[in-house]
Amino acid sequence: MLNRLLPAVLALAIGSSLSATAFAAGPQLKGQAPGWYRLQLGDFEITALNDGTLDLPVDKLLQQPAANTARALQHAYLGLPLETSVNAYLINTGSKIVLVDTGASGLFGPTLGRVLANLKAAGYSPEQVDEVVITHMHGDHIGGTAADGKANFPNATLRLDKRDADFWLSPEQIAKGGDGAKAIAANVKAYADTGRFKPFEGSKDGVEIVPGVKAYPAYGHTPGHSNYVAESKGQKMMFWGDLMHVAAVQFPEPAVTLSFDSDPKMAAPAREKAYAAAAKDGYYVAVSHVSFPGIGKLRVDGKGYDWLPVNYSANR
Q1: Where in the sequence is the domain holding 101, given as residue range(s)?
Q2: Has residue 136 been placed in a domain?
Q3: Whole-prediction pTM
Q4: How far apart are CA 212 and CA 127, in angstroms?
Q5: In 10 A of CB 98, how many CB atoms?
Q6: pLDDT tens-digit readout, 236-274
Q7: Is residue 78 part of a domain?
Q8: How many helices (H) and strands (E) does the chain have?
Q9: CB count, 10 Å around CB of 111?
Q10: Which of 66, 89, 172, 231 has the most crowded CB, counting CB atoms within 10 A?
């Protein structure tokens, strides 16, 4: 009897061994999906582009630390320093393509610099971009405009508020800012040398970039910090730049400023005005430093606001 059972037992053991080998866990693949997200705004197509993330010591950057650092530390489950998204946005009006900010390129280390790759992954090419509009001239917003003295968007015009250009491109500021300031100046030069750097004079009535896209002043974070607005068929989205850095703190308390703000006395009311208008009128906002894709709406909550991120939809 044992002799008859032995072949069957051996076959079962061998089969089990082969099965275990076949279904062994594969190697972990690491990495993420391409960082882009699409949204229709009337006849316009909006594509959010992630440049990567940057660790920010938010508990040290907040102004008026007695009250606000405590609030930041309440959210330490996210980790301190806080891993913070850096986002850019592509507006396709159907006739023009406008890129709002360009990320950092190599100015802030290896965790950033992915805008170009994600733009291509989203189905666009840098040559298609007609206008590059910059909310302000901090490196994580203008760093990706050029590389090694060559424009990354060879057919685009570079636009930003003249107040920011005059301040950041002054010889005194370039000398004070060191290598980072020199790199930003070189990026601008790549467009200026071909007549494609065209600063604008900010206006409360808005400055038209292309039909359906305007720039509005939101001074304070930097001397010429600007918001951009896209409108189509009654739908609206405002691109905020750096009116938001720490969502857990600044949405509940919009008056909170950061040490990055050039003029906190102007930056705080600029934030408060933008938040109130977005909540009142119910339009989308696109935010550079809210978790990707950084698009959502605001709802009043007491003296502050709730952030309602856009729902993911495979049908947009």
Answers
A1: 35-309
A2: yes
A3: 0.90
A4: 21
A5: 25
A6: 999 999 999 988 888 988 888 888 899 999 999 999 999
A7: yes
A8: 9, 15
A9: 14
A10: 89
Which residues, in sequence order, are bridge partners of residue 264?
none
| Nearest C-alpha neighbor of 128 from the set 86, 103, 91, 160 | 91
The CATH number of the domain holding residue 264 is 3.60.15.10
Edge-first strand listing for the sheet containing 213-217: 207-210, 213-217, 226-232, 235-239, 284-286, 295-301, 304-309
pLDDT tens, position by position, 123-141: 999 999 999 999 999 999 9
Q: Is residue 5 part of a domain?
A: no
Separation of alpha carbons 10 and 142, rounded Å: 68
Tokens 């951009």 locate to 228
* Total domains, the chain: 1
Within 10 angstroms of residue 100's Cβ, the number of other Cβ atoms is: 31
Pairing of strands 131-133, 146-147: unpaired
48 contacts: CB under 8 Å, gap ≥ 6: 36, 37, 38, 39, 87, 88, 89, 286, 292, 293, 294, 295
CB 51 within 8 A of CB 140: yes
Beta-carbon contacts of 300 under 8 Å, excluding residues fewer than 6 positions away, are: 279, 306
Q: Tokens for 106, please give them.
A: 């190599």
Alpha helices in 77-170 (DSSP H): 115-121, 139-142, 162-168
**Per-residue b/e over 210-245, b at no fewer than 16 CB within 10 Å?**
bebbbbbbbbbbbbbbbbbbbbbeeebbbbbbbbbb
Residues 6+ apart with CB under 8 A from 255: 268, 271, 272
Tokens representing 306? 């709730």
pLDDT digits (tens, 9 = 90+) for 158-208: 999 999 999 999 999 999 999 999 999 999 999 999 999 999 999 999 999
**At 239, which amino acid appears?**
F
User: Which residue in 179, 100, 178, 79 sits closest to 144, CA to CA?
Assistant: 100
